[in-house]
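User: Working on a comparison across species. This one is Syntaxin-binding protein 5-like from Pygocentrus nattereri. Can you predict its structure so I can line it up against the others?
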Amino acid sequence: MYSVSCCGLTVALVSPQTVRHGFPYQPTALAFDPVQKILAIGSRSGGVRILGRPGVDCYCQHESGAAVLQLQFLINEGALVSACADDTLHLWNLRQRRPAILHSLKFNRERITFCHLPFQSKWLYVGTERGNTHIVNVESFVLSGYVIMWNKAIELSTKTHPGPVVHLSDSPKDEGKLLIGFESGTIVMWDLRSKRADFRIYYDEAIHSVSWHHEGRQFMCSHSDGSLSMWNLRNTAKPFQVTFPHGKSQRDGRKESCKPILKVEYKTCRNSEPFVIFSGGLSYDKAGRRPTLTIMHGKAITVLEMDHPIVEFTVLCETPYLNEVQEPYAVVVLLEKDFIVVDLTQSNFPIFENPYPMDVHESPVTCTAYFADCPPDIIPVLYSIGAKHKKTGYSHKEWPVSGGTWTIGSQTYPEIIITGNNHFFPPVTLQMLYKLKTSKVFEKPKGGEVGRSAELVEEDPYAVQMVSWCPQSRVFCVVGISAHVILYRFSKHDANTSITSLEVRLQCEMEDVISPSDTENTVCATDPGGHSPQPQPSSPRSNTPDSVRDSIPCLRVKDRVIRMPPGYQAELVVQLLWVDGEPPQQITSLDLNSAYGLLAVGNCNGLAVVDYLQKTVILCMSTVELYGSADPFQRLTRSPRKNRQSTSVNTDSIHLFLPLISLLLHPFLSFLFRHHFAFGFVLFDGLITPFFPVSFFSVKGPGRKLSLPTDLKTDLESRENSFSRSRSSSVSSIDRDTKEAVTTLQFAESYGRKLDTLPTPCLWVGTSLGLVLLVPMSIPMDEQERMEEPITVAPTGTVLMLKGSVLRFGFLDCSGGLIQSPYELWRDLNAPEDPERPRRRKLVNFSPCSSQETASDGHLAVVCSERQAKVFLMPSQACLYVHNITESSFVLRADVVGVSNSVCLACFCANGHIMILSLPSLRPLLDVNYLPLTDMRIARTFCFTNGGQALYLSSPTEIQRITYSQEMCDNLQEMLGELFTPTETPEAQNRGFLKGFFGGNAQTFDREELFGEAAAGKASRSLAQHIPGQGSVEGVRVAAGGVVGDLARARIALDERGQRLGELEERTALMMSSAETFSKHAHELMLKCKDKKWYQF
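Assistant: Here's the predicted structure for Syntaxin-binding protein 5-like from Pygocentrus nattereri:
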């Protein structure tokens, strides 16, 4: 536990992971509790997700990280057994909001292959790779001395090993009989009482699964040749039925070969034919066929095609008793990348609408944004609009996984998560609110037009690179990988409108030089004298070669009137153009301000500011031009460029010598670290480093594509090693090939010059060289003048300097309070006109004419870079506080956030450290090594928000939320759902006297007499090792210490006492219920037998 308090702000990192959302990555196992109605999913990384009703969603992690092989619920007991690939069994306690491991059992000499826990039994059967079957007491988690050895299970005359145990189940007719299935095709019915085999079956095909008929007289097996065999206990010499459900008869009478049937479930019904449900079994005749789940109901065969391979499935039945008619009502299917539930009660087998956010990864997540304290009306509005676009055809019945309890806690507040595939989610339950597809804005490329965007990127040209959202005005901006920005406005009404397209020529042309003494600075492709260039005219969309491709965007915007449904409607598209055969550089920074009506974008060439109200470009300049005479660097010329055309024809790959700068900064280097849909975010250093050759162009003919690297770790290591080189203000020159990228932008009410007395709208610009520029603007106040008069922009050349690339700006008043950026309140531009209430712009915190009294004190500006944080006093620009965040690593993400009525600077470093600094004093409050940077996905998606929370993409399909606020940690228990709900176990059916007399009823026996230490003895200590649970109460006691530990121990003692009293009360209630039931049955039996003669029995 880490906890620090300063000036009323308390930050902590106590079990920081709060909630995990999304689909479990690489799932491996599935289990369902039919009484509690909760579901568990295991994954390859050792994670376990437990799901109930919406809001009941818990994530657990095995410390070993070993893959979960199998899960078994202790039905209606509030416990779960997990078997992992490291041959360890774990017992999880689900009677607490955060499940903990109570016991573990590590097998030393044998590998676990299959587990089976009978209903209402405390003895777990464990099959191993050697073919042996062990028995574990789940209460004490120790091995029994009773062992079924493989050489005793098979006949002594058998010369071959039967293989691993692939199935274990007790007979529905007699719990004293255990059916053991071996991989080779051998099946043994083992009598637990007599310790011998009742019968043995030797089949030619390998067995994958076995399923019983509820009467216990027959069972069904699935085999590796795609067949199903039915066996009757009266005659086990051969199966009485063998079918190939998907096998066709060939000319010679034999069945064609089929794929293995990996699992089969045989479930009976009272009023209809039984269900036979299995996965696999398709013929090999067609390649590329999708995975299927087959449902056989009587003579009807329904094949459900799946989008992804089937990992596991389980059938949900009305009763937990295996010796009763099962009455299946649904089947849960776990796929590699999805999770569906099929309704078996309807003939067309529809699926249930999934209430969990399992489609976070519907398209690869490339970035995330996390907004806390949103306007309270935004979530219902987004949900109502998004619900209209949902698919239809779902089952009308309620979601069957309905266990647990969850209530809205007292500490809830509106939150929204936006993922880079344009999905809106509200935590904690994370329900899908709204989806947005950016591709609908553009025309589908024709055959000859594919090259423009394809030559820039190898992935989807519409992929999202970053987002910016103003919750108050509901203006939403999306940056795409094809160097385009789309601006959306929200409306509750549909509209027929056209999309305005602005084309910006933001390209730095470096003139060829011969003499190294020529130190002329880089200039922008636009006229340097014009700070308000007009939009470029549309260019021909022909497939021109690189040498003559000029003023062409990568994509073509729809140039016709289109109908836009209610929701977010595209209004403006800004595209960067090709220049002299060079593709546009990707956008590295973005900011919008609804009060100003401005949008700013930057890349490694320069800066462009767009007035989205007037649909004009008001500024387009290179970074060097923004400095003017205040440029602190003397930029050297570069070598003459070689002819591009000859290079593209004669070379298969181009080796470019580039500086090692930030991925956030240099868009081309961002491709080096992309797997699937990775986009250029904060990954590299902004230091001036020696040049190194990077081969990332692969030229094919006249075009060229970016190819991905094969080794990511090497580049990261070189990135880390570059930090020994420091960059100081004494650097006098930089190479001209080092393009200074715009890394962060923010609009704010500030002072553009030192002598300013009143704040004015300003644009703060941070660059990859650690420099900060201020661009003041003059914006008309009157609404009509704002729509007609141009905005004047006058860069002042003001320069502030830091170490490393600038990442974040923040603004405080002189008392340390956070200053919010001005914004416009939302108005529906497509709503019908109301003469009495005209739609006028309502601006908040927009005060360019502030009074002298309120503005005389100025404000504080917080600037954070990859290495350093500084606090400046404006307008004097004096540096009040400075803190070197890290010397051995670099900051990936930094945000100025509010926590517990205070403001702090939150940083996430590449070495995994989370650092919290107080503001404005920049005092370290927290420094915890939480998450080493093992994947670029984490760096790309990590973000902080208000309330002491953060999130990141922990896997390609899951979002992990964490907290560093003590207040949030204290309220976490209230926010989580209860997994276990006290529920009475349903009673077994009374099957009648005659049916029980003739052997139809199940026989019970005392397993304690057979498996207990008194009868079976102790197991060998070398076979398995018992490990006490690290997450139990004892483990917490050891971890606690000091005053906080005393309080924790007192709280734990109270919880433990309350839990024991609760268990005692439950046991007492159960004993009373059992006594009443016994008395009732005894009385009924007495009345039934009172007047009978002896011959009537």
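For your comparison, note: Residues 1042-1089 form the longest helix (48 residues).

User: Helpful, thanks.
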